[in-house]
Specification:
This protein is mainly α. It is built from 14 helices and no strands.
């Protein structure tokens, strides 16, 4: 029951925000613009987004290679799709990243390395997002004209980086060990000790680290371009540069684990930001939901991977 409480709270937050937003916009206007989405464009968009996922797997492969493991890109891609499906359609205590760790552990039989590889793949991606967001703060301030969103971004960034530092910093882990032991999480500290050794070793591979971060910048810029293409198809007059300012800040805020994958929070945040540049809340919600729904469609092949994994598990038993 306790495990289901966070899921219930996240669902309540997402649904509550969506209902609040959707009851305050013209839904007919949103639905009418969906006619601009043609089937060829949807197929192209899904293919383009798949390319972004492939780049994420290439980044993951670079991280694993630095630890001495070579895993084929097609296996990493299937793991990524399975993780996406778990995160979106099977909200539980077992998130998509945890499932990716499980799939990699099956191949290399080194759970700490598998965990560290997923952690570092996420870390390099977030490093690029934070860098773009920080660069975008001055123009965001100029456009928005107030500090509220910037302060929200800084608070969320601080919390997220605090969590990452707890995993990566031996000093912070040593300081928090007594507190974690009191709540019976001492074994987690022992595992994190091993993970930290791997993480520190990886950070010494400057060439691999630089390549992974470079790939991360390409991924983020590509995803923003993907959103720009969606906006143009939906006839929403927003520029690539405006999305380049807004999207990284939005990503950081929606990473906070208080909703289902940022659903509801992203729509509300985009509505606030879009109206500051002369667009409508309807246009913001339309673009956000279209982006989200296409992501759901793209994650559907992950169900096949999960089904095959479950059959393989039953066979081994």
């Amino acid at each position: 029951m306790k495990d289901k409480l966070p899921i219930f709270l996240k669902t309540t937050v997402s649904l509550g925000l969506l209902v609040f937003i959707l009851t305050r916009i013209d839904l007919n206007q949103v639905l009418s613009r969906l006619q601009f989405l043609s089937l060829p464009f949807v197929l192209f968009a899904l293919l383009f987004y798949t390319g972004c996922q492939w780049l994420s797997c290439l980044r993951w492969q670079v991280v694993l290679k630095s630890a001495g493991y070579h895993i084929p890109i097609h296996y990493l891609l299937s793991s990524y799709f399975a993780g996406m499906f778990v995160s979106i359609f099977l909200p539980s205590s077992v998130g998509g990243d945890v499932y990716r760790v499980y799939r990699i552990t099956k191949v290399i039989d080194a759970p700490e390395v598998a965990f560290a590889s997923v952690f570092l793949e996420r870390f390099t991606g977030l490093a690029a997002v934070f860098a773009l967001a920080l660069v975008g703060i001055p123009p965001a301030l100029k456009i928005i004209g107030s500090w509220d969103i910037v302060l929200l971004f800084l608070v969320c960034a601080g919390i997220i980086w605090g969590g990452f530092l707890l995993i990566a910093s031996p000093l912070l882990l040593s300081w928090s060990r007594p507190w974690l032991s009191k709540i019976r999480l001492g074994s987690v500290c022992d595992r994190l000790d091993k993970v930290q050794i791997i993480v520190i070793q990886y950070l010494k591979h400057r060439q691999s680290l630089g390549l992974a971060i470079a790939i991360s910048f390409v991924i983020q810029l590509s995803i923003i371009f993907y959103q720009y293409l969606l906006a143009q198809q939906l006839q929403i007059p927003i520029s690539y540069l405006e999305l380049l300012v807004f999207t990284p800040i939005s990503i950081v805020v929606t990473l906070m684990p208080i909703s289902l994958g940022g659903l509801g929070i992203q729509e509300g945040l985009w509505a606030y930001l879009f109206t500051r540049i002369g667009l409508t809340a309807e246009q913001a919600v339309l673009l956000s939901l279209t982006f989200t729904i296409l992501g759901w469609i793209l994650a559907l092949p992950g169900a096949i991977i999960l089904l095959l994994d479950s059959k393989g598990l039953k066979t081994t038993k």
